[in-house]
Amino acid sequence: MNICIIPTGDEIRSGTVRDTDSPAVMAHLLVRWPDAEVRRLPPVCDREGAIQAALDRAIEGGAELAIFIGGSGGGHRYSATLGRDYTHSALDRLLEGVAARSIYGPNGHLWSRLLCGTRRGARVINLPGPYVEAEAAIRAFCAHTEADAETTVQAMADAVIACYPVGTV
Hints:
- This protein is of the alpha/beta class.
- It has one domain (2-161): MoaB/Mog-like domain (Molybdenum Cofactor Biosythetic Enzyme, Chain A, 3-Layer(aba) Sandwich), CATH 3.40.980.10.
- It contains 6 helices and 6 strands, in the order βααβαβαβββαα.
- It has helices spanning 10-13, 21-32, 48-60, 87-94, 131-143, 149-161; strands at 2-7, 37-40, 65-69, 96-105, 110-119, 122-127.
- The protein has a 6-stranded mixed sheet with strand order 2-1-3-6-5-4, sandwiched between helices.
- The radius of gyration is 14 Å and the shape is globular.
């Protein structure tokens, strides 16, 4: 199994925020697929074109699974003070057989959209950026790797929601 982890976000790319998600995600993937080749690609800026290009490079490099971390929020659509997140909208345009779940609530995101689908035969998912959410979502993904996209993305969304007190999401 050839897997690429692709962190997104200008804050990760610039080093303003340390990427703690990628090592945690990699650890879960290696438990699930001990013989996998897992590569972390350089962080991608929050622009749809850059995200699309990173996915295509990963697939051209042999990725059978591409995992984007971050960029699942949409807070900038509600407040100019919140970061711009475009991973979900870029992937929405590219993926085939896409299944998605949107999470609403005062959980720090205001809104988060998780996706699972394929591009040119490679499976693609996105994870939210906050560490606790990314870890919950990748655990759920690893437990549902044989499931269809709908089941997988629902399990990931349920895992993220479970990170918060009842009634807040």
